[in-house]
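1st attempt posting a full record on here, be nice pls
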Amino acid sequence: MKSSGYRSIFHIYLIFFLSLFGALTAAVILSFLLFSLQKPDGSLVRSDWPRKFTEQFGEQIVFTDGKPLLLQSGMELLQEEGIGFQILDASGREIYSFQRPEYAPGVYSAPDLLLLFSEGQKQDGQGICFASPLSGDYCCLLYFPIKVSRATMYLNGQRFTGGKTVILAAAAILFLIILFSGLAYGVFTTRSMNRLITSIREIAARSYLPVSGGGVFRDLYDSMNRLDREIRTSDRLREQTERMQEEWIANITHDLKTPLSPIRGYAELMQEPDSVKQEQYGQYARIILKNTSYMEALIDDLKLTYQLKNGMVPMKKEEQNLVRFLRELVIDILNTPEYEQRRILFTCTRETILFSFDPTLLTRAFRNLILNAFLHGEAETEAALHICQEGTVIQITVSDNGKGIPEKDQENLFRRYYRGTGTDEKTEGTGLGLAIVKNIVSMHKGTISVSSIPGTGTAFYICFPLS
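the predicted structure (as tokens):
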């Protein structure tokens, strides 16, 4: 943990150092750009180059008979740099020129000359002009074709020498501030990271206490609080599922043993011909077959649940009239001897609703829903099936007027291994029927929900979208 903290401090120091170095580099480059000029040929020179050039250019002027003349080397130098040239007399009038620009006047007043001698003068953004005195009350003017857009700074040497101390002191203070702020930030970040790592370990150990606070890592702590809640919720659901699964395994084991007992008993009786009358063989055989069918149903539910969970059930869709399909399913159930005395009310808003579905799977789903009403209801319990089409949605309602389902059971009704416990009587079924129904409906892009009032009845609502 300590080495990780040291690395964090080193990284933060490195970031601050690189930032400082970048800032200083940018300052140097900016200063160079601010106090430099670009000549017509593209080369960069110091911003005081025009003044120094003007002061030194006097060497290219000679006097003959008291009159100034420009040397050939001076002309070549002016041509090379593209600089205009004028010589003025004591009254400010031009007496000689070379490459004089069009904007340059032929006569200068005394104030204009004073300005030129002091700091130069911009010429409408086309260039700048500097003046240099010559002997005999003459002066020369040089017109530099440089568009000056930077400020030329002249420093007072005495003040600048005294200001060096202030500048160095300010730079040292700035450096120390950055240094110690980096150290403080590094320590703060390291402690925060250590706290975050500890919180992550506590989440993994399920001992995390939610943190409520602001600061730089507020969003991160909010995410960790949410993660802890989700993990704890997942743990509760997993524990509940495991508990339900254990209960289901115990129940299914008991349910499998229950039909085996009569099968074994009646089979042993049938092995002793002297103890069984001839007319009893048929009765015993029917009991054995009934219990065998019950065991087959349990095994089929287990197999189908596993296949649906792992996506191993192939879809064999056919476009059929869903109304006719459900009506025939209701008739088949009522033609079964076990349910021939029951009542199922079938209603529909239209006689033809074409839908692409797997007949085998939907038969299993709706048969489970209808038979559940009879299995968990009284002898006089009636079921109802209503189908309609609203726009591009098929709505099917399977309801009954039975005992209803307690509210606490409705939340878990479609979960695997769950069997309702609304009464003190032994619950029937494998706990897989409604989970199978939901999986089948989902495979057809549909949804299923339940509404139930204890003592009044239960209704399942299934919706299928029409593609």
